Amino acid sequence: MKRAVAAIIGGLLVLGSALAVAGPADAHNYLVSSTPSSGQTLTTLPSRFTVTTNGVLLNLNKDGSGFAIQIRDAKGLYYGNGCVSVDGPAISMPAAIGAPGAYTITWQVISTDGHTVSDTFPFTWAGTAGESKGAASAPTCHGKYHFTKGGLPPANTGTGTQSVSNGTLATVLWIGGAIVLVGIAVVVTLVVTARRRRA
Length: 199
Fold this sequence. Notes:
Layout: H1 2-26, E1 31-35, E2 41-42, E3 48-53, E4 68-73, E5 78-79, E6 85-87, E7 90-94, E8 101-110, E9 116-125, E10 163-164, H2 166-198
Parallel strand pairs: 2-9
Antiparallel strand pairs: 1-3, 3-7, 4-5, 4-8, 6-7, 8-9, 9-10
Helix pairs in contact: 1-2
């Protein structure tokens, strides 16, 4: 009986180790802070609009492809040149703004696990009118920037929390479920084997 219990505990430890390994592999970056923050009213324009996540971002090409910050006003006009810099866990873009009023900031990053994470949230500009004139189309950093296949979410559907593609969520759930099922099968096998030996 003691051997059976020890075997079961060993099986659970193996399962725990597997979950610990799988967890970081499937983890995606999430928003830690931003300038502006969701719902904030700005009276002074910062030098850069910034989004900071919890971990180093995956900038394989070193050119910012797949990363974005977009600023839009209530009329849907875009501001800024779209030139995004990636620095460890953060992305930023030179700040540009138009007339006082309601704006949205939409951002997109490539997470440490290789998946696209994005979000949209509102902020208010209450300073003096900016020098920038809004553009009808999204900026592409003078033609150098290219969106990832999934693109950015619509500017009017933000919730203030990042979103992950359905493919990412499905992968996480599938792997997690498979590991749990394997763990259960191992424990059941060990219990049955122990009972047979006792019989």
